[in-house]
Amino acid sequence: MENLDKIVDLVEVDWPSKRVLVVGDLMLDKYVWGDVERISPEAPVPVVRAAHNSEQPGGAANVAMNLAGLGASVMVIGFAGDDDDQARLKNLLELKNIEAVIVSVRDFPTISKLRILGGNQQILRLDTEGRLTPPQEAYDALLRSALDQLEEADAVILSDYAKGVLSERVCREIISAARSRKIPVIVDPKALDFERYRGATTICPNLRELSAAVHSSMSDLEELFTAAEAMVPNLDLSYLTVTMSEKGIAVLREKSRVVAPAVARQVFDVSGAGDTVVSIIALCICCGLPIENAVQLANLGAGIVVGKVGTVPVQKFELLAALSSDIGLHASEKILPLERLLIRTAAWRSVGEKVVFTNGCFDLLHVGHITLLERARQEGDRLIVAINSDSSIRTLKGPPRPIVGERDRARVLAALGAVDAVIIFDDRTPLRLIDAVRPDVLVKGGDYTEATIVGADVIRSWGGRVKIVPTVEGFSTTKLIEKSLAMS
Fold it and tell me: Which residues are identified as catalytic?
């Protein structure tokens, strides 16, 4: 992935500092999970034996859930009925620290979608929604709340499911106010006429929605994209961002286009994938990442979501785990301060990976060091190498050590395939670092015993273990230095 160092910085450091305002159609997604055992004798339909029920915020609320899962601060605004479903929806949002302004509308039920699943297969979906248009005072209240929240927003997402919230007036006033404050607006559209989204930063239709908007067939992408490119200046957009399922995401500007291929994944359910895409794009845009890089990351997030059953938002640790193969090819992304190391470690653990820790000076890297690191890596799934800083080595070994400076030592270690992260520490021992990271395995060379290994007792206190690996005879930094001096 291009600009990987900047992308990882955004995910780990910048996204938690961003606040996104989501305005749109709130829903409650309900699930009945069970197994199909037979066909009903009453009608030719499957009989589902229910095992358990679950509920999840849906629609614009699922966009908010994605943003929260990615680490951002979120405010979501929309309509709902004055009913039990609204209370459950609000409670689910609050559990994820999502602020919600839900305007209650009389005679307007909270929109819900009840899905009945047999195994991983959806058997039936039952939708509950109102047919009446909310009164003008409901729109007035919604707009007041949205415009008030713009003062603290870094980006705005208009999540349109064509259920009545995003009227022409609501879209026009929010986009105009955001634009006057230089706040990017990202639209997930449902209206056939995109005119109501005029002036947004980008509109993110899928191919079917784009086809309906430009009155061009989906079967001819060249014709469709040419018509869409002309829409960009006509609607005063920065660009169009078109999701194309397994074909990826296209970024269309006037007379230019870029297509980011999709990430190959086994697809179980496409529910919510579009919400993940707009959430990631919004966070990338408000952090200044070029849209061409943003859609690559959005593809990765969508690939994670379609591998799940039901409407399940993406989590930051899942995105970092998916990036891990790319991170492994970039040594600079493995050298981390403690704060980012803890984030990275949490991402590894979230997918069940075992963390191994070793430490040392690693001055003049030699075969003995390489063997130690390779054997340490075999003790788990991820290896953290902590190295003494230059000042720490001088305290321990005296001048003229170290021979190689701390940044160069870290860079060389990070280039090794066996190493997943490198951190530099100033203390005489790594005890405080071990206590912060809490590795599963602590590895040291054969010139130590468990009694002389710093942190051995601490790591055993939380169920970790200590592993001593044999040293390679005849190799040490001291001997390399002595040999070099003898030859000079």
Answer: 275
